[in-house]
Specification:
Its EC number is 1.4.3.-. By secondary structure, this protein is α/β, with parallel strands linked by helices. It contains 14 helices and 17 strands. It is globular, with a radius of gyration of 21 Å. It binds flavin-adenine dinucleotide.
Length: 427
């Protein structure tokens, strides 16, 4: 059977040591079978185990193989579309519920890290950087909006102030969120997997779910085994493929690329980001970056609709990095990789049930480190019979991408081009 390794990322190279995990080669019985060991699957497993469920996790490759082990590591609050958009889409009552959950994911991560002593270089503080007056105006309303929902660790920054936290002269201002921050994402996933196992959960790696036998007593089949469960949680996100055809029509895998420099000198690292905050700019196709624990700069940006792997990642991302930080022109790039996230048309998460025992959450549209942790909690609540918060997500409407399977990629790329042009021209 194929043994799928991690991509050659900085994260894989600096991962904490983990025990080998077996592939499933027998038939097992469990309360909940979780498909996918990214943050959605692991967070669900952990909340369910803490509530007394028996849990089996099937992972097609390795824990954190997907976006959860490859991302920019930025703890960003709220959702890929903000609460005001949700309010306009679904009305004030549902928006109230979703708005009050929008800052919970970051708290869950911090609780997990503290409770299970996860070594993942957690740092507080995230900056949204504005390149245009329009983006600055948007940050001002975002601050007011978030404060309405009780989030008060926010500071608006003018041009002078933002230069104190990031040495980039492109920004006219920004907003600092002290409940944002950053982590080594793969080590967070590995720590959560260890926590799952410490509570008696079973994780099988190299064990793709290849078929789900639906019905009152569902069975998940892998190439060499099967899991009989009372409930199934589908958490394969952009890597799920066609396992659950109903989910594929309204979402689209997209790639985004990340590079990592060689370790910087202490002085250079401190000059770029003196407080070690992470930064994302406010463009539609945004750049995001931060320092690692060993003082490399991790820089990501851009989107490949349809998730084709680009031939030369460094050639795409390095110019973006040098535009922000020309002072890095002689710095070597040690790692470059790509990862897939799942986009929905509304950019809001796709959550729901199939029948009464298969649950899913996916499609947080590139903004999922916090949401996926919340999703695990909300899924576990639903399986315990408290579905009010789950249903608030499940009722968000979703639509197929224009152009169908054939044309959705060029149509989306065209849309993104239009929004990027607006960013560049500032309207
Ligand atoms: C390069 C990159 C940078 C990003 N940066 C950020 C960031 O800085 N901040 C932020 O908030 N978000 C970021 N994101 C998004 C964020 O990483 C994702 O939203 C989040 O990790 C999704 O978690 P997940 O568990 O739903 O999916 P994944 O982490 O993709 O996990 C899905 C898992 O399911 C497994 N799987 C799939 N199908 C099957 C099957 N049939 N059987 C068994 N297992 C299966 C896969 O192997 C995979 O391990 C980024 C994403 C990428 C790709």
């Amino acid at each position: 059977m194929a043994n799928t390794p991690y991509p050659q990322s900085y994260y894989a190279a600096s991962a904490n040591p983990v025990p080998p995990r077996p592939a499933l080669q027998e038939e097992v019985q469990t309360d909940v079978c979780v498909i996918g060991a990214g943050y959605t699957g692991l967070s669900s497993a952990l909340f369910l185990l803490e509530s007394g469920f028996k849990v089996t996790v099937l992972e097609a490759a390795k824990v954190g193989f997907g976006a959860s082990g490859r991302n920019g590591g930025q703890i960003v609050n709220s959702y890929s579309r903000d609460i005001d958009v949700i309010e306009r889409t679904v009305g004030p009552k549902q928006a109230q519920l979703l708005g009050h959950m929008a800052f919970e994911g970051g708290r869950i991560i911090r609780e997990r890290v503290a409770k299970y002593n996860i070594q993942c270089d957690l740092k507080d503080g995230g900056v949204f950087a504005a390149l245009t007056p329009k983006q600055m105006g948007h940050l001002e309303s975002q601050k007011r909006l978030w404060e309405r929902f009780g989030h008060t660790q926010l500071e608006l920054m003018d041009q002078k102030r933002i230069r104190e936290v990031v040495d980039c002269d492109q920004y006219i201002g920004g907003m600092l969120d002290m409940s944002g921050g950053h982590i080594h994402p793969l080590n967070l996933a590995l720590g959560e997997a260890a926590a799952v196992e410490s509570l008696g959960g079973k994780i099988y790696e190299q064990s793709p779910a290849i078929r789900i036998e639906r019905g009152a007593n569902p069975v998940v089949h892998t190439p060499q085994g099967k899991v009989r469960a009372k409930f199934i949680i589908v958490a394969g996100n952009a890597y799920l493929g066609g396992l659950v055809p109903e989910l594929a029509a309204k979402s689209m895998p997209c790639g985004t690329q990340v590079i990592t420099t060689e370790p910087l000198s202490e002085d250079l690292a401190r000059s770029l980001l003196p407080q070690d905050y992470c930064v994302e700019d406010c463009n539609y196709l945004l750049d995001y970056y931060r320092l690692t624990g060993d003082k490399r700069l991790i820089f990501g940006g851009g989107v490949v609709y349809g998730a084709r792997d680009p031939a030369n990642i460094e050639a795409i991302i390095r110019p973006k990095m040098l535009k922000a930080f020309p002072q890095l022109k002689d710095v070597k790039i040690d790692y470059a990789w790509t990862g897939n996230f799942l986009l929905t048309l509304s950019r809001l998460p796709q959550v729901g049930r199939l029948g009464d025992n298969i649950y899913y959450s996916q499609g947080c549209s590139g903004h999922g480190v916090t949401y996926t942790h919340l999703a695990g909690k909300v899924l576990a609540e639903a399986l315990r019979g408290q579905a009010e918060r789950f249903d608030a997500f499940a009722e968000l409407p979703h639509y197929p991408f224009p152009g169908g399977q054939l044309l959705r990629v060029p149509f989306s790329a065209l849309g993104a081009w239009y929004y990027s042009l607006r960013d560049r021209l500032g309207f």
